């Protein structure tokens, strides 16, 4: 198998929140696709700093740092790539965590939804890898 050429890596961190066999997803304003909540790091931020900031910005809740646990890191081509061989890859480091506050879409999020495995087609390729693992583990309905 040929090794994929990576021309640009988009490094992201995501919060995996599962309740009753469904995973929390969010659709940013102006986008037509849902994502696992999270985002890109700024400067020299650690995964934890990025995760705490992004979830606060997107969902108005505070993750409890002492409960953050790494569940996996996934890489796939971007969903909006016109040429899958262009080498633009998204790396998504996924973490679970408990939170305080009330989940709500912020000004940058148009909609939040709880997805099952049947909704897998509504998320980008890197998120689908997570869905596959969660389904195989029996965590996702």
Describe this protein's structure.
- This protein is α+β, with helices and mostly antiparallel strands and 141 residues long.
- The protein has one domain (8-136): Nucleoside Triphosphate Pyrophosphohydrolase (Alpha-Beta Complex).
- It is 18% helix and 35% strand.
- It has 2 helices and 9 strands, in the order E-E-E-E-H-E-E-E-E-E-H.
- It has helices at 47-59, 125-136; strands at residues 8-15, 18-19, 22-28, 38-40, 62-63, 69-77, 88-96, 99-100, 109-115.
- The strands form 3 sheets. It has a 4-stranded mixed sheet with strand order 4-1-7-6, with helices on both faces. Strands 2-3-9 form a 3-stranded antiparallel sheet, with no helix packed on it.
- Strand 2 and strand 3 (22-28) form a beta hairpin.
- The protein is globular and about 40 Å long.
- The termini are far apart.
- The model has no long low-confidence stretch (mean pLDDT 92).
- This is NUDIX domain-containing protein.
- It holds the Pfam family NUDIX.
């Amino acid at each position: 198998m040929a090794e994929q050429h990576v021309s640009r890596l988009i490094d992201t961190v995501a919060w995996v929140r599962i309740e009753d066999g469904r995973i929390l997803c969010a659709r940013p304003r102006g986008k037509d696709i849902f994502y696992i909540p999270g985002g890109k790091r700024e400067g020299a931020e650690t995964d934890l700093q990025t995760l705490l900031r992004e979830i606060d910005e997107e969902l108005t809740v505070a993750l409890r740092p002492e409960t953050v646990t790494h569940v996996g890191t996934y890489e796939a081509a971007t969903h909006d790539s016109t040429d899958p061989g262009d080498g633009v890859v998204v790396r998504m480091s996924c973490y679970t965590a408990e939170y305080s506050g009330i989940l709500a879409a912020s000004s940058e999020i148009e909609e939040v939804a709880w997805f099952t495995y049947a909704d897998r087609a509504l998320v980008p390729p890197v998120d689908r890898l997570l869905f596959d693992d969660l389904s195989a583990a029996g965590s996702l309905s």
